[in-house]
Amino acid sequence: MDIKNRQSPDKETGSFFSRLISQHSQKKDENKVIDEIVHHIEPKIARVRRYRDRLREPVKRCHQHVQSLVAAIAGPAGPIPLGSSEYHSDPVVHASFAGRERLEEFLTISARQIEEFCSDKGELFGLMTMTREEKTTYGRKMEGNLIVGDIPMQVLNFTEHRIVGAAGSLDATRLRLERQALEVLAESARQELKERRTLVAELRDQQSRLKAMARMFGLDRIGKTGSGYLNAEQQQKRDKVKQLLAQTEEELSKAREENETPQDWLEVLVKKLSEPQKILHYANDSLHLDWRNIRAEFSDEKSNFFTLTSFTLAEELTRDAILVNIKLH
């Protein structure tokens, strides 16, 4: 979803996904959706016989995954109100910001987005995403009848807030979130193909350089020292080049096996889209925090229980998220 540090899709990418979600929402022929995905990722895949049949089930799985994801976001409670007045009254809003001033700063920064997408009723729905930071602090805690100091406690803090899927209605926000999730899945597949091709290109370049070095060293006569005698240093260099060249050619042969033809690319795409949960993983995470955002098991203070949805992109980037409703006053 946001995913933090993701670059905004360019105009061409944006128009692609706009068409994709439009076709999906209007329940148009699924073949057209598959063709849009193929055209975006690698048009030459369409040359493979019955490529649509190979992609039909993987695309269906992506669709189901996206629907489950959006359902998990909405949850049974729906969006929570987000405004300055909620900082002290709503435990989720209180936990999400390190002070009311941070909340107000976030609303000010988001004002243009809020005004652009809000409904005629002056309200906006969206997914608020944020980065979780957890660290150890030290404080006092009652143990029996004694107050013990320097007790290690886990405290949470949330930063880098963003609004994703902003729209004037909840249904429109759901569609925007689906589109953005589909974007993540398709971009991940395209990146996979790009990385494989890059590897082949790099190995070929390395192979060419090593062959040039081999020719330069001669391999049969190095340095042209009269009779072609190779001293110890020259032999060592020659052997090193031969070893690297053999290793590179072996790696290149392996890299080329499944990465050179449209059929190869189709298989990569099928495998990638068949496991959307490995690209974009989500889970509900229940938190029990006191008013200082210290985990309840470390605190004597009154605590609150609430749930956030945690997203992980490609097992690398994790963001917490909650559906919010912002009203202009």
Structural class: alpha+beta
| DSSP E strands, number | 6
Biggest β-sheet strands, sense, barrel:
6 strands, mixed
Unreliable residue runs: 1-13, 220-227
Shape: extended
| Rg from Cα | 28 Å
Number of helices: 10
N- and C-termini, Cα separation: 29 Å
Provide the number of structural domains.
2
Strand content: 15-25%
- Helix-strand topology string: HHHEHHHEEHHHHEEE
Explain what this protein looks like in three dimensions.
The chain has 329 residues and is an alpha+beta fold. The chain has 2 domains: 11-186 and 274-327, no CATH class; 188-260. The chain has 10 helices and 6 strands, in the order H-H-H-E-H-H-H-E-E-H-H-H-H-E-E-E. The protein has helices spanning 11-25, 30-41, 51-74, 91-96, 100-109, 111-117, 170-217, 232-256, 262-273, 276-279, and strands at 80-81, 123-143, 146-167, 280-290, 303-313, 317-327. Strands 1, 2, 3, 4, 5 and 6 form a 6-stranded mixed β-sheet that branches. Helix 1 crosses helix 7 and helix 7 (170-217) crosses helix 9 (262-273). The protein is extended and about 80 Å long.
